[in-house]
Amino acid sequence: MTPIARLYQRAPMGMRLGLEPMKEVCARLGHPERELSVVHVAGTNGKGSVSAMVESIAREAGMRTGLYTSPHLCRFAERIRVNAEPIADEALAHALTTALDEGPDLSFFETATLAAMLALRDAKVDVAVLEVGIGGRLDATNVIPCPRAAAITRIAFDHMDLLGHTLLAIAQEKAGISKPGLDLVLGPVSDAVRDAIDETARLHAATTSTASLDLAASEYVRHATIGLAGEHQRDNACVAYVLGRRIGASPDACERGIRDARWPGRLETIETEQGRVLIDAAHNPDGAHSLAAYVSKIEGDKALVFGTLADKAWPEMIDALAPRFAHRVYVAPKGRAATEPEKIAARHSGEIATGVIDAYKRARAAVGKDGLVVAAGSIFLIGELRANLLGLPRDPPIAL
After folding, report:
1. Degrees (nearest 5) of the Cα angle 267, 268, 270?
2. pLDDT of residue 162
3. How many CB atoms lie within 10 A of CB 301?
4. What is the spatial distance between Cα 285 and Cα 276, in angstroms, rounded to a whole number?
């Protein structure tokens, strides 16, 4: 059995929060997490984009980089990158095998995180950008000692069953990445959320700074060329700029890194022979509103392909998106229990598709070659569509 197949056997353990299992295995392996110089990025939305920008900045500054994110769009290897490239199959197999053998009781995400730390240590990266999986305080990535720099991007409603049902509770969980002496860089948050983050930071002998109050960063983003689409990326770029400076990158390296950053599946336009496709990983109301704002500025005929997992706040998402589209097609994403497309159609009328590719074909037929098809609602939906459109190999989706 391949290491990937062995790893997927651990999916039934779900999203386990807690640090003790990871701490125990890391100790047995000589603490690989202590050998990494880390940038730690938490948040509800934007943390992947910020991580991608910081990794790009670090490469522009001449550093050998590591990047760990989740979930993957097409192949598991996308989660662990060295100098922007997905980890080689041989190195991935070695790291996964070690993590699986040494941590037989670890969950899927814990095993993946441990494998990433082993792989990035072995790759001798100068800086490892680690995106938090869920929350922060009890996330597997939080076994690291005090990082070189850290940030919290946006705070919004998601994973409430694990993190709490108020923005303040969610913010405090994410602020749990605080370490003594660390100054957390904050994206745009309300005063109440900022107070909640500050309270948690103080308990850990940490402090916070608002990225937009950094004069150099705020002046830069006002007129910056940002590689990632969407006006909301200016907030993310501001956070990334501050983090870049904190790891020693020059202003020029920060500007080039943000300009050249790429993060597939986030307002990504794919040109096909059949026409343009815009895919976006928006999977909660905050992300849906950002997508709606972006799409509202695009003229011409547009069709929406939309589907969500059952535990997502889909009514608010489709309420934000549906008015922007004359044509709507609903589908159940693969991964785990999905929202029934019929329920979505009952709220905002649309066609029901049998699968993602069927949904795309229906949407394309509705707008023709000159129209735009927009796919959103689940990263598993857009991952399947992206792999099909670009002819990419794909590992099974894993929705924990």
Report:
1. 145
2. 60
3. 14
4. 25
> d(Cα 97, Cα 87) in Å, to the nearest integer?
14
Which residues sit opposite 269 in a β-bridge?
Answer: 278
Sheet holding 268-272, edge to edge: 268-272, 275-279, 372-376, 302-306, 327-330, 351-352
Q: Which residues pair with 291 in a beta bridge?
A: none
Give the long-range contacts of residues 289-293, CB within 8 A, separation 24 or more: 289/320, 290/45, 290/230, 290/231, 290/232, 291/230, 291/267, 291/320, 291/321, 291/374, 291/376, 292/320, 292/321, 292/323, 292/324, 293/230, 293/231, 293/232
pLDDT in tens, 224-243: 999 999 888 999 999 999 99
| pLDDT score for 70 | 92
Alpha-carbon distances of 32 from 54, 113, 144, 387, rounded to whole Å = 22, 11, 9, 33
CA distances from 242 to 53, 147, 360 (A): 11, 15, 40
Q: Locate tokens 């392996």: which residue?
A: 29
Closest CA to 245 of 268, 219, 204, 217: 217
Q: What is the pLDDT of residues 159-175, one digit of tens each?
A: 555 666 688 989 999 99
**Helix, strand, or coil here: 30?**
coil
Q: Determine the Cα–Cα distance for residues 278 and 91; give it in Å rounded to an integer.
A: 33
Contact predicate 210/239, CB 8 Å: no
Angstrom distance (rounded) from CA 299 to CA 24? 55
In order of 37, 53, 85, 247, 318, the CA distances from 251 in angstroms are: 21, 14, 24, 12, 40
Which residues, including other chains, have CB under 8 Å from residue 322's CB and lie 6 or more apart? 304, 328, 347, 348, 350
What digits encode the pLDDT tens for the residues 29-74?
Answer: 999 999 999 999 999 889 999 999 999 999 999 999 999 999 999 9
DSSP code of residue 243: H
CB atoms within 10 A of CB 184: 25
What is the C-alpha to C-alpha distance for residues 198 and 200, in angstroms, rounded to an integer? 5
Single-letter code of the amino acid located at 325? F
E runs forming strands in 159-293 = 183-186, 207-210, 268-272, 275-279
Q: How many CB atoms lie within 10 A of CB 369?
A: 10
